[in-house]
From TrEMBL:
One GO term (biological process): secondary metabolite biosynthetic process
Domain FAD-binding, chain residue ranges per copy: 9-182, 307-391
Source species of the chain: Exidia glandulosa HHB12029
Annotated protein name in UniProt: FAD/NAD(P)-binding domain-containing protein
Key words of the record: FAD, Flavoprotein, Oxidoreductase
């Protein structure tokens, strides 16, 4: 009987939350030490863009399984407020100086973090591991996928002129993922269906997010100057300030000393239309935002008065992948299903992807000869859920901006409130070990079917 080779060189492209979670899962669950784990990061060091990240109870199970619960508890901005009633309060804010609350979107046992601190816990964990090999300044340019249907290694070509090889390639490289493009090249070789490549490019979702930070002390001062009484409500927790076609999602960060503001202005465009604003990220004159929210409630005025600089982010998404894995290449996180930010689930889905994918790659059945089945088993349980949450996020964007097409006779505020309580309750629920077990059953079935 021919001996079966078991050692696999795993290349993870991307050292953000997605890639570092996967590396950590591989290290922990590869008890046979059959995997050689490499992380290639394009930047000179680990770093994360963005102010805050919310982790649902379901996704937190992964962090607990990695033994990181205590470290994350130490930086949890929501510590002590994990009950189901904590979440984004929704206010009608576009009808004069006095807004009113009309709904709440509960966080499912949510944990809130400063994004850079969150990544720091993961990067410290990875850098302390003797088994995870990290290479910086490695921006992937292309992948040689010739003979990809066999067991020959893939050749990775980086922007600095260097190359490397791997047996399994994982794209945790974000929305512009070159790994996704390489995976779809393999998909065409594997299936003969050239239309699969249409899902390669990210597309504009038809709206933009405007981001800014304002010191909370300044918000409070502005609030009093504009005629407010006491302290602004935003000091107590997250709020969606809603109006027709516009919304501000605001929550305290850095121990409540800073208001993190993300503004959604619907532009009346369709998903897939050309992005009209040039660069995906660009600076915006604060006067533009202040003008957009003229006449809104006093608290919004206090926030806008404090804006000194802001940026526009064209919200792009990755839609329609028929599989997250072809050959010995798989994608996860934004590389697989980049979504709008309205549900706060992008990082959560990346973490859950990493847990299932890592467990399949570390599984005793996973060898050089069966690894493509391991990747398909991952896809079999993760794609449907991640893409459903992607659709949910679109809906929450419409709910927040009061553009959800309810029946004409409906009270929009009441209908939105009811939907907020029911929609997506499943996002933070469920047992991640059960999801791994489903993938394992599918993995075994694929192996036994050969």
């Amino acid at each position: 009987m021919t001996a079966v080779s078991t050692e696999l060189r795993i290349a993870i492209i991307g050292g953000g939350i997605s890639g570092l979670c996967l590396a950590s899962v591989l290290e922990q669950y590869d008890v046979a030490k059959k995997l050689e784990i490499h992380v290639y990061e394009a930047a000179a060091s680990f770093g994360e863009v963005g102010a805050g990240v919310t982790i649902w109870g379901r996704s937190f199970q992964v962090l607990r399984a990695l033994g990181l619960e205590a470290k994350f508890a130490a930086i949890d901005m929501n510590k002590g407020r994990e009950d189901e009633k904590f979440g984004f309060k929704y206010r009608r804010s576009d009808q004069g100086p006095n807004g009113h609350e009309y709904g709440i979107r509960p966080f499912p046992n949510g944990h809130a973090y400063h994004r850079a601190q969150f990544l720091s816990v993961l990067s410290d964990h990875v850098e302390q591991s003797p088994r995870i090999i990290v290479s910086f300044n490695k921006r992937l340019e292309s992948v040689d996928t010739q003979n990809s249907l066999g067991n020959d290694p893939y050749t990775l070509r980086f922007k600095d002129g260097t190359t490397s090889t791997c047996d399994v390639l994982i794209g945790a490289d974000g929305i512009r993922s070159p790994v996704r493009i390489a995976m779809l090249d393999v998909a065409v070789q594997e299936t003969g269906d050239a239309t699969l490549k249409a899902a390669g490019p990210a597309v504009w979702c038809g709206t933009s997010i405007y981001r800014t930070l304002v010191p909370m002390a300044e918000v409070c001062e502005n609030y009093l100057q504009l005629g407010g009484n006491g302290t602004p409500l935003i000091k107590d927790g997250p709020i969606i300030y809603s109006g027709k076609g516009k919304a501000l999602a605001v929550y305290p960060i850095q121990g409540g000393t800073v208001a993190n503001i993300a503004i959604n202005i619907m532009e009346g465009k369709q998903v897939g239309e050309p992005y009209p604003h040039g660069s995906w990220v660009s600076d915006v004159d604060p006067a533009f935002l202040k003008n957009e929210f003229e006449g809104w409630e006093i608290e919004v005025g206090a926030l806008m008065k404090g804006v000194k600089k802001s940026s526009r982010w064209g919200v792009h998404v990755v839609l329609g992948l028929k599989s997250f894995a072809y050959g010995r290449i798989a994608v996860q996180g934004d590389a697989a299903h980049a979504m709008t930010p309205y549900n706060g689930s992008g990082a959560n889905q990346a973490i859950e992807d990493a847990f299932v994918l890592g467990r399949m790659l570390a599984h005793p059945l996973c060898t050089r000869e069966t690894v493509h089945h391991a990747l398909k088993a991952y896809d079999s349980v993760r794609r449907e859920r991640a893409q459903a949450i992607q659709e949910l996020s679109f809906e929450l964007g419409r709910l927040g901006t009061m553009t959800e097409p309810f029946d004409e006779s409906a009270d929009v505020e009441a209908a939105t409130s009811a939907r907020l309580l029911s929609v997506g309750a499943w996002v933070g629920q469920g047992d991640m070990e059960e999801e791994v077990q489903k993938a394992e059953v599918n993995f075994k079935a694929l192996v036994n079917a050969v």
